[in-house]
Amino acid sequence: MQLLTQELSFPDPHTADAHGLLAIGGDLSVERLLLAYNNGIFPWYDDNDPICWWSPDPRMVFDLRKDQPMKVSKSLRQSGRNRNYRITMNQSFIRVMTCCMNVSRNGDLGTWINDDLIAAYTQLHELGHAASVEVWLDKELVGGLYGVDLKEQGVFCGESMFAKATDASKLALWHLVKTLKQKDYQLIDAQLYNDHLHSLGAVTMDREVFLSFL
């Protein structure tokens, strides 16, 4: 594991440890974040820790080259038709990140997202390198997701999503999948394996293969 300095560089992702931890330190500048994502690296850390940079193997992805990269259940389709949700993109980026930070997950309040990360990714968004999907019920933001958009590579790096109403985050993801497929994107990077993402159709991919898309 490497301790980063002010120099704008990262070690080879293949040198990450068995858990995917590659380096610690550095900063959250736009330049460093873009360098990280373009090399298959992302930050993930707790408030009391230094910035930790990860490149796990295998990687969790939604493969947009497939005809059906996401498993869409009958109930999810019904939610899309019957619950009067309205879906937008890039209309409320900061609010989506803030909701992702504050939403209760498994009985715990909050996530690894903090104010520094919100400020950093907002800069990325303002420069066109990060995007959000919002799900509205009337005028209330009830779900959404955000991530880093690597347009030239056709890869969207999903960061976090939230839901305050039935199926709201799944509908945000479904909207993103459909939108990116229309633009001939190749992958949505979901980073680390979890059962929920797997149930929605995400698959594991060897890091070497994932890096080839970048």
From TrEMBL:
GO cellular component terms attached to this protein's record: cytoplasm
One example GO MF annotation: leucyl-tRNA--protein transferase activity
Transmembrane spans: none
Top EC category: transferase
Primary localisation category: cytoplasm
Localization, UniProt: Cytoplasm
InterPro entries: Acyl_CoA_acyltransferase, Leu/Phe-tRNA_Trfase, Leu/Phe-tRNA_Trfase_C, Leu/Phe-tRNA_Trfase_N
Any Gene Ontology biological process: protein catabolic process
Keywords: Acyltransferase, Cytoplasm, Transferase
EC annotation from Swiss-Prot or TrEMBL: 2.3.2.6
Enzymatic reactions: N-terminal L-arginyl-[protein] + L-leucyl-tRNA(Leu) = N-terminal L-leucyl-L-arginyl-[protein] + tRNA(Leu) + H(+); N-terminal L-lysyl-[protein] + L-leucyl-tRNA(Leu) = N-terminal L-leucyl-L-lysyl-[protein] + tRNA(Leu) + H(+); L-phenylalanyl-tRNA(Phe) + an N-terminal L-alpha-aminoacyl-[protein] = an N-terminal L-phenylalanyl-L-alpha-aminoacyl-[protein] + tRNA(Phe)
Function: Functions in the N-end rule pathway of protein degradation where it conjugates Leu, Phe and, less efficiently, Met from aminoacyl-tRNAs to the N-termini of proteins containing an N-terminal arginine or lysine.
Family annotation (HAMAP family): Leu_Phe_trans (MF_00688)
Family: Belongs to the L/F-transferase family.
Protein name: Leucyl/phenylalanyl-tRNA--protein transferase
UniProt source species: Nonlabens ponticola
Native organism taxonomy: Bacteria, Pseudomonadati, Bacteroidota, Flavobacteriia, Flavobacteriales
Gene: aat
